[in-house]
Amino acid sequence: MLRSGGVGVREIRRLAKELSLDERRVGFLLELLARADLIRSGLPDPVPEHDTADSYWAPSAEIDAWLGLEPAVRWAVLARAWLRMPRRIWEIGTRDAADKVVPALSAELHAPGVAADREAVLGRLAAEPPGTGLGASDLLASLQWLRPRRHARMPRGYVEYLLAEAQDLGAVAQGALSAPGRALTEAPGADPGSDPGPGPDADPAAAAMSDAMPDPVDHVLLQADLTMIAPGPLVPELAAKVARVAEVESAGAATVYRITEDSLRAGLDSGMSGADLHALFAGASRTPVPQALTYLIDDAARRYGRLRIGFANSFLRCEDEVLLSEVFTRLPDLGLRRLAPTVAVSSLELADLMAALRGAGVAAVGEDVHGGVLDLRPRGARVATPRRTRQNVHRPRPAALGDAALAEIVAGMRAGDKAEDVSGARTVRADGTRAGGAATVALLQTATRTGRTVSVGYVDAQGTAIHRLVEPVGFHGGVLEALDAVTGARHVFSLHRITSVSWAD
Fold first, then answer.
1. Closest CA to 72 of 174, 180, 165, 156
2. Rounded to the nearest 10 degrees, what angle do helices 274-284 and 261-269 cross at?
3. Is the confidence at residue 433, as pLDDT, over 60?
């Protein structure tokens, strides 16, 4: 989800590529599913305040019940959602007044009057005899004559958009209402998200669509090239099984499925065995099962499950098999699983497993990844001490620098001064400091070693100049770490942001 609430162009293009649909169609489907409450926007838990960067769009809890309905009933749910949708879907992908692309599912597409215009278009087409169509121009002229105050300024392109949406949905064909579309206008039904009923008989629009759709088939046609053809919509039971063991290669009036080793492995992952796969294809196909498919099933089933992975939080290792068996007998509620005569795994955390074993009187020792003894004793809590109360704590003073060390530091500072003067650096400030170079580095290093307080001037990320009294505790890699002399807070300064440094005393 974008920060504005919609779905970006990049995601629309990715979905269009994966679904083999054009981008306009994908945007139409997203808006339709959202209106029917089949997809919803989700938020992370907990929700960041005033932040939707990590929000997303995903199927809602109602999607599973909707997928279990008959296709005609599912169509009726979507059709009613479209009829009452106050959205200008055709503006997805266009540019707004600020020259920004309008995303799908954004608030900019909201328009309350569009739902009434859809009903007006379908209602005008319903007034014509069945099978009689109207072009966009004739339909616009008729609407303007019927409702001049509302539709006088309606452009022709607007009517064409509404007709295109109705045609995508199957409510209109060749400018005329289809039988399901006419039933939709005669019985609008309940709002989206309500219970559509157990079958098409409870809904006139669903019943009309059920009559228009081909009858579902209970068989497939296996081909020698490991493809499978469904000569029509499959019955729900067979469709669910086929979806587990085959991949859709092309959709249409007849759907073509491709059977591969990966698709068969997916069927095995769902709990099917090799015998179940042979029985499925032999019972569902009206054509003989190809020999290549039989060999492929046998080969996939033979190699399946040879290497297994699982999840375990802790393990038990004991050279005494009898003692490990005793643990299984005395503690059956630990959920232990024996991998070998001397090794078992558990879903409990290491500390919990240790406490359970010791509570039962079994002496167990923790072990790290290298086989060494792991100390699991609880550690006491520690709270950071503020600087105000830390002043009375004895801290060893750093050793005093000798004359040779001090002479070396002074020589380095003077060498840095000379180097900056030669390179055209800025002049010395009134406080005797510089904005960078060897002199600044030497002074910070000295302050770090001696523990003296310095005044640091720097520019923060917002460009604000700030001065602080700090006690340096570390200086390496062009970064100064210091404690605030007033508050005791810890600060980190980058060398390139420091503008001045001077001794506080």
1. 180
2. 110
3. no
Per-residue model confidence as pLDDT tens digits over 176-188: 999 999 999 886 5
- Residue 153 tokens read as 């300024």
CA angle 338, 341, 347 (to 5 degrees): 20
Structure tokens at 103: 């995303």
HSE-up of 488 (CA within 13 Å, CB side)?
8
Q: What is the three-state SS of 241-279?
A: HHHHHCEEEECCCCEEEECCHHHHHHHHHCCCCHHHHHH
Rounded CA-CA distance 303/265 in Å is 10
The Cα–Cα gap between 224 and 301 comes to: 20
Instruction: Examine the pLDDT at 429 and tell me if it is beyond 50.
Output: no
- What string of H, E and C letters represents the secondary structure of 56-102? EEEECCCHHHHHCCCHHHHHHHHHHHHHCCCECHHHCCCECCCCCEC
Secondary structure (3-state) at 325: helix
pTM of the model: 0.59
3-state percent breakdown (helix, strand, coil) of the chain, nearest 5: 45, 15, 40
Rounded Cα distance between 127 and 123, Å, is 6
Q: Which residues contact 274 (CB under 8 A, 6 or more apart)?
A: 268, 297, 298, 300, 301, 302
* Separation of alpha carbons 52 and 6, rounded Å: 11
Q: How far is CA 350 from CA 126, 170, 435, in A?
A: 71, 60, 55
